[in-house]
Queue: 3 jobs
Job 1
Amino acid sequence: SLLFLIIVSSFILAVISWHLAGKSIRPVMESWKRQKEFIADASHELRTPLTVIQTNLDAAMCDNSGTIAENRVWLDNAYSETEVMSKLVGELLMLAKIDSNQVTIGNGNVDLTDLCRRTVDKFAENFKMKDISVEMNLEEGIMISGDELKLTQMLSILTDNAIKYSESPGKYSIRLNSEKNKAILKISDEGVGISDEDLHRIFDRFYRADKARHREEGGTGLGLSIAKWIVENHGGKIKVDSTVDIGTTFTVELPIND
Ligand code: ADP
């Protein structure tokens, strides 16, 4: 009977350890799969601007009959693709750091009202170029605890998108107010909007609603996934409402300092 007891308990132990091993290996497998997908998507996205740069430089070098002005067009195209690529590499680095838990969120005292105003100022030239009027409605002195640089990055991503996905003339509005213990920020545009089927995917990495067109705008499909990470790592929430051809509103809620 001792032998029987040993066999039964080793069987039970084997079942338990098999179950635990399965549980602990699953997240590792999933994260490994996500990493593989991330590298595949990133390489694909990097190849596109590289190809554009190569073909334009090829054309500039091979076209002996072209005038300097004609060659300049090829070089301009190549140059603007290096800008797309540099933005992409910056975003990829940020996401890689996020995935390996290397990004820390500062917890300084941040004047959110001031950050909103500074973001709008920073984009003044872009608003002007696209003939977009700006409406600002900011409650004064809304203070939150967080990382000024990252919150600025989030505001820039939302503002940059509002401009990119607007036709001229357009309208941009930024509203900030406090309710109980949270700050409520709304950034709206009267641009192209997002269809219902795209709406639930726009915070996914590499997702672009209208692939071809939105790539032409310099879109990488990474901005919103970074913005969402920043908001959530400040204990907040981000959501979007949008209607095609009417416009889009992003709402960000962040906890306020007591
Ligand atoms: P991208 O670099 O392509 O703009 P994002 O992650 O910031 O990447 O946005 C993902 C996609 O969501 C965009 O490609 C675009 O299709 C859509 N989108 C984001 N913001 C807006 C907006 N304000 N109006 C319309 N579409 C938007």
Job 2
Amino acid sequence: ETQLNIEKIRKDFPILHQEVNGKPLVYFDNAATSQKPQCVIDALTHYYNTDNANIHRGIHTLAERSTTAFENTRKTVGKFLNAAEAEEIIFTKGTTEGINLVAATFGRKFIGEGDEIIISALEHHSNIVPWQILCEEKKCVLKVIPVNEKGELVLAEYDKLLSERTKLVSVNYISNALGTINPVQEIIDKAHAVGAKVLIDAAQATPHARVDVQAMGCDFLAFSAHKVYGPTGVGALYGKRALLEAMPPYQGGGEMIKDVSFSGTTYNDIPYKFEAGTPNIGEVIAFKAALDYVNEIGLENIAAYEHELLEYANELLADVEGFRPIGTADQKASVVSFLIDGVHPFDLGQILDAKGIAVRTGHHCAQPLMEIFNIEGTVRASFSVYNTKEEIKYFVEALKSSIKMFKK
Ligand code: PMP
């Protein structure tokens, strides 16, 4: 049983205290985005009320304040990931942009014709399509680690895919579609053994597991603030210094340059080399408030409590008529993806919404994975630290009565 005071945590999230369709909101769509605590909302309004100014260029007081707060987030993200230096943290729009940045810079420069990139069958579209685009341009080859019927990666097949032609392995740490926790350490070590670099998509991992880039030894890692209680439109890309320095810039513009002239331009040092233009300053600043909030509760405490919720949900769901879980990996976090025999996921989602319950239905941006399971999509309930066993109980009862309605 958790030592966390969940009632107190719930009070930090104003959005939770409302009725939806006449019922108390039950928010189980955390794998799409999490809700924001008051401290994050306050950080945003504080910035716009008192500090708003463009960063890095101004010498006036507001510019100094906003620059300091912006760079403090970089330090906090660096510590959150245990990066060796804050300069190894690049601000992005989110995971998607982080992966695209690596494809457009590292990929364009270091991956050529006949080279190979390995991803997995569990990937989000954002960790598939950028590599398809690169492969089309560079005539490199995309290979896919398969999954077994439980939704776990088949590492024996991964071994067969690896070779000296492998330049990059890019996989997620935790699957947003099924909740599978992947054996990233083994994946990283094996990639390094053949000289390949590794990018970890930690979008679904950072809210639910401790991520330590130095311990893992990954070369790149991308995540989004909005899934870790922070604002939308902001994320971070970690990269090892030597790699980031060897990579060409991403976008051209202000901030990413040292000197510009028509006879030639020199680029700024990392991380600024990759941060062209005015960023999402207020949202970056509020991102720090989100990570401070997580650190205060403790990621290990959050993960342990969410595991309790997951076990409880599995226990109750096992008793639901026609329940068919999709993804039954031994190592899972926070997500139950399922079908109910004879009921379309979309219909279930609508009926649950009428009872105030927010779940996700569909392919969860992982269409190739759905194809492997020979389904169009699932119903996905994904939990966060502010969810409760009472909510899960209410959800399962709602599910049972919805099924009865459909079976009439
Ligand atoms: N990868 C994974 C595993 C995800 O869960 C998500 C978000 N659902 C993404 C990538 C994309 O993140 P974003 O849309 O924030 O860029």
Job 3
Amino acid sequence: FDKARLLIEPSDTLSALQEAAELLKNTNEPVAFPTETVYGLGADARKTDAAYSIYRTKNRPADNPLIVHIASLDQLRRLISKSQPLKSKDIGSPNESLIPQVYQPLIDRFWPGPLSILLPIENHEHPPVSPIVTVNQPTFAVRMPQHPVALALIALSDVPLAAPSANASTRPSPTQAKHVYNDLQGKIPLILDGGPCGVGLESTVVNGLCDPPVVLRPGGVSLEQIQNCGGVWVNTQVYKPTSVNTEKNYIPQTPGMKYRHYSPTAKVMLFSGYKECEAMDCLYDQLKKQNMDKDEARIGVLCSKKWKRGVFGEFSNLTFLDLGEEGSEITKNLFAHLRELDLKGVDFVLVEGVAEDNEGLAIMNRLSKAASMVFTKDFLN
Ligand code: TXA
Ligand code: MG
């Protein structure tokens, strides 16, 4: 596509949204748009050819299902009720009982926002979205994003958008329009530029259809925030199946989680509870193993709370970036900083990990997926 471009003039907003909406309604080409979490690559979730073009554009494995984005509960109800078996459609108001009760407190509290829920597909002969979107699973994932451009685009087109993150597969998720441009330039007709994403990492994916209900992917809403809404929600990543003996308890699959993600080209060394000098010793070991001279090696450092630049001064080829102190600052910077180090062509990235509570759980989840080496000590304080 020659016309792939960024739309950055605020005065262009309405015409850009209209152009994007027309593309979504009339073609199978995916459009990139901002959400509060990361940029998405969206196409009509009901159309198989449109959904397929998303996988092709990103080079995404075909067994990793997509999240469907809606702008209102009314739009979601219309989508679901179209695929309901006739008898239940006829009973009372179609607006009731289509969304399982277990999600009600979460929807009240977090929509619009960075939370995706799994809904059952009741009628497999007339599924609400293309089987390409769900990868033939009995459920589909939905979220109502908070970003005004995302909401406007979905409402204006009235198209439920299947949208994964708008990066090329295995690259860090894009949190700025230029990241999308770098990855997908020439492959998509339009990128809507809504500025940097406020949250910076992907939505939390939950499954309330099993017992106990589970958090499948930690993200923009923390496990603590979900638990505060009531109910016993467990994190699949720390949840041990051996401690469970009833038939109803099972570990649901999150197909996407098996893939290595967010990988910059450099070797990422992730440290938990390590001081700078201890991390440097580990780096020296690696340099020795690879026969690299410390003055040749290009080193990137991502610090969070405690690491200081000074200690790394003995490396002449150093890029030192500050992720921030607060969890929400770190989530906002994380992917952009990984991309920046990648552009610098660093050989090694040393990352100061964070405690795995609140935003920390999702941050460490993404960092471990980017890391080729993880060094863990318990946090001392
Ligand atoms: O914040 C986000 O969620 C972003 C923005 C664009 O909304 N989207 C995003 O999509 O991160 P993606 O494709 O990168 O991640 C979708 C995740 C995958 O881990 C996938 O396995 C899971 O959602 N998922 C989708 N449908 C599912 C289903 N039916 N069952 C289990 N997991 C599902
Ligand atoms: Mg993704």
